[in-house]
Structure formats: structure tokens, C-alpha cells
Amino acid sequence: MNEVPSPAQLRGPRLHLRPVELEDLPLLHRWDSDPAVAGEFQVPRPRSMREMERRFLDSTALTEEFGRLLAVRDDDTPVGLLSYHRVGYGLWSPAVNMGIEIAPEHRGQGYGSEAQRLLADYLLAAFPVGRVEASTDVENLAEQRSLERAGFTREGVARHAAWRAGTWHDMVVFSRIQGDA
Prior knowledge:
Strand order of the largest sheet: 1-2-3-4-5-7-6
Distance between the termini: 28 Å
Low-confidence stretches: none
Helix content: 25-40%
Strand content: 25-35%
CATH superfamily of the domain at 7-130: Gcn5-related N-acetyltransferase (GNAT)
Number of strands: 7
Radius of gyration: 16 Å
Order of helices and strands: EHHHEEEHEHEE
CATH topology of the domain at 7-130: Aminopeptidase
């Protein structure tokens, strides 16, 4: 497993992405446990601080397999968390799936689009993958618009792909591929 080059290029007009650091864990612990951060389309993931520290210490590096980055405004205010993990379409067809959570007070300001564009650009340049994908609930129109503004193309609907609020929900699948702007 190869280390990813330094993510110094993960900088946009209003924010930058950086790897999660140990000092970020109290904030992430609060975000993981807060239903307002999860919003109506995700489920809160309450974990103990000890569990978060263990997971952090087990996987601090950004690798081809997995990574977590904070989206941070230029004034050093964290606005959200992005993550990615490797997926595949056959033995020799690696791709990357990414996701994002934006804190409620920072939603609707374009940070999600900017952060997702930065991460997708980086993943396509840093790894030998031809595809970066993301999905969201069919009812999450704000995230669908955000992904489109980040240069993703809507591909279709994955039926009954997510369990939430006691029922199955369809997910809209988006991708960016090598050569997309």
C-alpha cells in the first residue's frame, strides 16, 4: 500500500482540505453524535472518544485504501469532514467512493461543492483510478446540486441502497472520471 503524496494542493478559493489530526477528535466526536450534523439523510454515529482515538491511531495516513480530511475555511474554522475509500469493479478496476458531512451552520454556502471538487481532483491525480464516485439519498436535492457543481455526473439510481428511518431508500449515484473537468 503506497502513501499518497502530501495533500498540500488541496486548496480552493475559500477553504482547504487537510488530514484529520488528533486535536480534531473532540470536534469529530461531537459531530458524530449530533443528529443536527447527521441531518435527515444520515444516521448519527455515536462512539466513545476512546473508540475514535483507537480508530484514528490505526489509520492516520491518507492511503489508496482510505482517508479522512477536514474541510477548513481560510480562517481555520472546520466546516466539514470528507472521507474516501477504495472500491472496485472487477479485479483490476479500482475506483474511489467519497462522502461528506458539512456542519449545519456552514451548509448552503458552497463549501460542500468546493470541498468535493478539491477531493475528487486530488484523488484522480494521486491514485491510479479512473473513477471517483459518490451517492446521496434521492430526496437530498441540496447534495445532488452540490455534486453537480463539483463536476460530478449523475449516473442513475441505486434502488433500496440505504437503510434509514426504518425503511429502504433509493440513492442517486454520481461520478467523476479521468478527463472530466
